[in-house]
Fold this sequence. Notes:
Blueprint: H1 2-7, E1 13-15, H2 24-32, E2 37-39, E3 43-44, H3 45-50, H4 52-58, E4 68-73, H5 77-87, E5 93-98, H6 103-108, H7 118-131, E6 136-141, H8 146-159, E7 161-167, H9 183-192, E8 197-200, H10 206-216, E9 220-223, H11 225-229, H12 242-254, H13 259-269, H14 271-274, H15 280-288, H16 292-311, H17 342-354, E10 362-363, E11 369-370, H18 372-382, H19 417-427, E12 430-431, E13 436-437, H20 438-460
Parallel strand pairs: 1-2, 1-9, 2-4, 3-4, 4-5, 5-6, 6-7, 7-8, 8-9
Antiparallel strand pairs: 10-11, 12-13
Helix pairs in contact: 2-12, 5-7, 7-8, 8-9, 12-13, 12-16
Amino acid sequence: MDFWRDTLGAPTKIVAPMVDASELPWRLLSRKYGAQLCYTPMLHSAIFARDAKYRNEALASCEIDKPLIVQFCGNDPKVMLEAALLAQDHCCAIDINLGCPQAIAKRGHYGAFLQDEWPLLHEIVSLLSQRLKVPITCKVRRFESVEKTVDYAKMLVSAGCKMLTVHGRTREQKGPLTGLADWSYVKAVREAVDIPVISNGNIQCMQDVDRCLEETGAVGVMTAEGNLYNPALFMHQNPPAWEPALEYLNLVDKFPCPLSYIRGHLFKLFHHVLSIPKNNDLRIQLGAANTLEEFKRIVNVMKDLYEPFHQGTKLWQDTTERNTENLILPPWLCQPYVRVCPEEHLKRVEENSNKQETKRQYEDSEGNQISRKKMKKLRRISRRPQKPDSVPLERNLIKCANCVNPLGSKCIYQLCKKCCKDKCFLENLDCAGHRILVKTRREMAKFYARKDNTTELIDVS
């Protein structure tokens, strides 16, 4: 508890680590609206350890971005230690992601798909807790049974975990099958361990925060989607969406981030406004926007449309607006997005499967029917109007010096790719034109081999 109280400042209102969403500008906005602790997005430990550019972007922070916890995913104890050593000077703690349920985590064998490999997890947590100067925390999902969930938590604590975030859903509860998180599992873990426990799941408004703390006994609550749709939920506020949107864009001006992050945040802040059919054109414009100025323009257009209703100078008739009848608050206010329950989703899937549905048709700007693949390409091009359309090049008829294949147009050895690859392999060379990096990779392998040998010698000594 000393770590939670003295180092972190006893936070109860916490913003979750979110891929492509909890970047520096959003963290600063969340802190302004009451968040007391933030996490970086989930970082891939192997990429973080080897890629300096990825590392610098991931560690972007500032003095007021504290307290901050850096979260890693991975399944190799040595690689995760290497990444954590590089990050420990930039944060208050290192968190291990054991809760991501997405398909990419399954393919990469990390996140919630490690929860059955207790010896490996014990090794990872133990190694990092022994070698780092900052505490190790973990974020997990529950098992089907309370007993196994509690045993899981106890194992992580015995390995050296200093704070535990428990998500009250299983790894199968995701997407349209998300459903409600079960707080009783959080309560059981809290009563079984002697470290701070944070509850994750079902936090959509401030009333949920108070209720969760009372029901679970957790020291704090963590929210992800609730924060994205209403960053002011920790302050009992539902501001008009353009207020946090413009504040966020001003922060992006100072602390740049990828345009895809900006687009994602604005789609969530204005989710209910953009769901109104008459605003479909604004939705398309937001999807195609590719500059900060364009994002600001679209936000101001939506502000001009709905500010008169917000100020009361115009009367809002929600019965004339489809998709807003079920909202308690007007659609321009930041508020939760609530999915249909899994049972309702499965019922709709079954109903749709019984219908004979026609394949969706796509058309270009001239009304000609095109494929879905072609439509996606046109949308990508529309987001980059400054980039000229690609013009097919004439096939290079000059032959490779070693065979009958045409040579690569950028090959520095005047060879085709196959011959160039053979040459680079035999003579320890690189070819920038073909992006063949034999020499570079061999040198990197030797460097890390020497580094591992040095580490082993230090361990022995």
